[in-house]
UniProtKB/TrEMBL annotation:
Residues 35-124 form the RlpA-like protein double-psi beta-barrel domain. Keywords: Signal. The keyword Signal applies. It holds the Pfam family DPBB_1. InterPro entries: Expansin_CBD_sf, Expansin_CellWall, Expansin_EXLX1-like, RlpA-like_DPBB, RlpA-like_sf. It comes from Zooshikella ganghwensis. SUPFAM superfamilies: Barwin-like endoglucanases, PHL pollen allergen. Gene3D superfamilies: Expansin, cellulose-binding-like domain (2.60.40.760), RlpA-like domain (2.40.40.10). CDD domains: DPBB_EXLX1-like (cd22272). The keyword Kinase does not apply. This is RlpA-like protein double-psi beta-barrel domain-containing protein.
């Protein structure tokens, strides 16, 4: 009987920890922030390991706190400044920015303030991304054998976690690096493989996936 009580106590504690963690994730995403915005000459690349995006340079580098060790990568932000509003995508980290601070692309800064101002106070918040199509996965060139490394792209909400299931039903949780690449070393077994994607709201999507070294793969899902 004592063993059952101990198990139930452990299960209750685990459920409480999950609930607290989910509440924190929701609160972090739903806040409105204040800070100073500056600008830089962006090309869409940065610490989030994304490719250049010359067709859309409404991007931003986030301060260390709000970058959240890359958890904010790919998130969309609505920024309001003295001149107006801009919607930007998180692609980089700004080590020199104070908490709440943003380093906007030159193109985005011009929408919220005059360039001559250089630095202005702003308010900003995370918003769902107006993306087209399904989530994409980019496998690194180092992927192969017992090593898996990937970046998740084109997601409506920030990605919280990634896991891979093999054809035998075994799950492998991937570890997120501060540069926004999910990695795992393991004996992955045989396919077919399934990818589990969880967003900041704890919404889960399952999609079949073909592992292709160094290539982009479009999934069957979106948040």
């Amino acid at each position: 009987m004592s063993g059952i009580r101990q198990y139930l106590s452990y299960a209750s504690l685990l459920l409480l920890m999950i609930t607290i963690n989910q509440s924190y994730a929701s609160a972090w995403y739903q806040q409105t922030y204040k800070g100073q915005a500056s600008y830089y000459h962006a090309n869409g690349t940065g610490n989030c390991s994304f490719s250049p995006s010359p067709q859309n340079l409404n991007v931003v580098a986030l301060n260390n706190r709000d970058y959240q060790r890359s958890n904010s990568c790919g998130a969309f932000i609505e920024v309001e400044g003295p001149k107006g509003k801009a919607i930007v995508r998180v692609v980089d980290r700004c080590p020199g920015c104070k908490p709440g601070g943003l380093d906007l692309s030159k193109q985005a800064f011009q929408q919220v303030a005059d360039l001559r101002q250089g630095r202005v106070p702003v308010r900003w918040r995370f918003i769902p991304g107006n993306v087209t199509g399904n989530i994409q996965v980019k496998f690194t060139k180092g992927t192969g054998g017992r090593f898996l490394a990937l970046t998740v792209l084109n997601h409506k909400y920030p990605v919280r976690s990634v896991a891979l299931r093999n054809g035998q039903g075994q799950w492998f949780e991937l570890q997120r690096k501060p540069y926004n690449i999910f990695v795992r070393r393991a004996r992955f077994g045989q396919g077919p493989f399934t990818l589990r994607l969880t967003d900041i709201r704890n919404e889960v999507r399952l999609t079949p996936i073909h592992i292709k070294r160094g290539q982009h793969v479009t999934t069957e899902v979106q948040f």
